Amino acid sequence: MKNATRCVSLTEEERFGAVSTPIYQTATFRQPTAVEFGEYDYSRSGNPTRCELEKKLAELERAEHAFAFSSGMSALSAIIKLLTTGDEILAGSNLYGGSIRLLERLPRLGINVRYVDTTDAQNVSNALTSRTKMLLIETPTNPFQRVSDIAALAELTRANDALLVVDNTMLSPCLQNPISHGADIVYHSGTKFLSGHSDVTAGAVIVKDEAVAKEIAFVQNAEGTALAPFDSWLLLRGIKTLDLRVEKQCSNALKVADFLSTHPAVTDIFHPAFSGVEARRIHERQASGGGSVIAFTTGDAEFSRRIVESTKLCSIAVSFGSVNSTISLPCYMSHASIPAGLRDELAPPRDLIRISVGIENVEDVIEDLREAIRIASGSNVIAISKAVGE
Ligand code: PLP
């Protein structure tokens, strides 16, 4: 079955034949007797709407076990609870700012955190120690769109008895399935492509191994961080159009990236299709599209800020992956939470602009950006001369 079909197919015959999964908006379930439980007893532990979503997530990521969480961050929080005092986690050096903020809580629990550029597997090989129990990566990364070789890294972590965890938010399961390339755990901010409509905050953890899945299930139940029934339904509804949206967003993004790559005001552009030969080769092997997030620099932080604030169609917003195009300055927004001591090493530069391309008519998006750059150039002599190609 292809992804477009998987997105809309029902995983289970509903009791009354409903073709939209019902919302079981109930916190608790009647038991047959005081000492016997039915299939469900309490929604923190399990709920039929959430269960349907979890089956769908597992199916899309080509795995056996999936868990829906109240946010991408609670999903990551459950994953790092697999670690224990004395362990070490290696993390990619270009991660979402909130992930770094969360990881930076670990040293106080006696868990060491080190950051490494995972785009070169040799760096990871050099960095692994007997204490390393987890390697956490994004590919492509947010916001630089850097690509790491999932299969090569999986080989290294397997040999080191460590888990490879991949944040697959940037591409969605319709473009990339890291578990099929050897990853042990995949997680998502469901708030992005899985929802697609900016109307729900959600997270997902998808796991290959049953023993690991049991641990995640334990944390989800013990901490009560599972996704609520209505939000589970919203995510299920969003997923029905995931493949369709992603396909359109990818093709729009390529056209926007083409436009930006030849614009004289743009100094550098970041998107898998515009990366080096080796990164493109790796990306094409493990993913079926470049995604719809583009980052670019102008060489001038103030100029970049004026561009972002001059767009009309693209909303200034922190998230990505939605049907409508958004624009942001990651340094001040999504990556502002990187702790001060790590900003020089891990934060994106102040002139970096990130665009998440939506499903609008792409000519309208390009026109919005062209006009925003023109307006932003108005009060900047250097930028004006650049924008007119001098
Ligand atoms: N992973 C990535 C790549 C993200 O960009 C984000 C949020 O922006 C998260 C995880 C966290 O997800 P959430 O905001 O749903 O908690």
Architecture overview:
This protein is of the alpha/beta class and 390 residues long. It has two domains: 238 residues, Type I PLP-dependent aspartate aminotransferase-like (Major domain) (Aspartate Aminotransferase, domain 2, 3-Layer(aba) Sandwich), CATH 3.40.640.10; 145 residues, Aspartate Aminotransferase, domain 1 (Alpha-Beta Complex), CATH 3.90.1150.10. The chain has 14 helices and twelve strands. The chain has a seven-stranded mixed beta sheet with strand order 1-7-6-5-4-2-3, sandwiched between helices. A five-stranded mixed beta sheet has the order 8-9-12-11-10. Strand 2, helix 4 and strand 3 form a beta-alpha-beta unit.
CA-CA gap between termini? 53 Å
Strand order of the largest sheet: 1-7-6-5-4-2-3
Give the full name of the CATH homologous superfamily of the largest domain: Type I PLP-dependent aspartate aminotransferase-like (Major domain)
Sheet with the most strands, sense and barrel status:
7 strands, mixed
What is the helix content?
25-40%
